[in-house]
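Support request, please re-run this one:
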Amino acid sequence: MTREQQDDFLDSAAGFLGTPRVQRFGDALQIDAPYDIQAYDISLFSRLNITCPDRISKAIEKRQAEYLAGRCAAKLAQYELGLSPQDIPSGADRAPIWPSGLRGSISHTRHHCGCVLTENAGLQPAIDIEHIVDEKKFAALNGVVLSQHDQRVLAASDLPRLTAATLAFSAKESLFKGLYPSVRRIFGFDYAQITQPPKEGRLVITLTKPLSETLVSGRLFTLEYDICNGMVFTRFQFIED
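Re-run finished. Output below.
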């Protein structure tokens, strides 16, 4: 696909979708961008040639805008790989269904969206984006998302307490997104714990319970992260056994 076609798409999305940021990590490409929910209108789906599923058309506008923003990021990621963009529908489990030859992940917050995408058949990338939590949300994370072990490890990091807690939450979300296509089942936050204090854009997580014959208790995974504009971005690449 030509850069001109990508520019035309961005022109059509102007006002709703902000300027995208493109990054490479390993064999995967990441694209993320701000979006303005106040500029959302359901007519954007047809204008941007993105299918609006029935369940989304019946949802509240906030959910519609989030879905559209995530699919915009997925479309831009396909453009960046030089591909002719295809729709990304959702399965019964609401996970994205990627076109043959592609693997990816989508994330969105109330004002930002992102997608990671790869053409590497042996790799499952994942992304999660979170706004840094406030004290109320921090209290909700403790004991549910963050174990006492997690809290002790995070306390040794140089990051502010709320940032570290958000990072741990986001990292577990990315881990789950990256492993889900292999295990095909939902598992709780207690299946993973933070192993080392986050440092220099990297965070190590350990499985605390087995998920499969190869995803055993004690297996380590390293995730990447960056923090900007009051948000945490985490990325994970699962290389299938």
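The first strand starts at residue 21 and ends at 25. The two ends are 33 Å apart (CA to CA).
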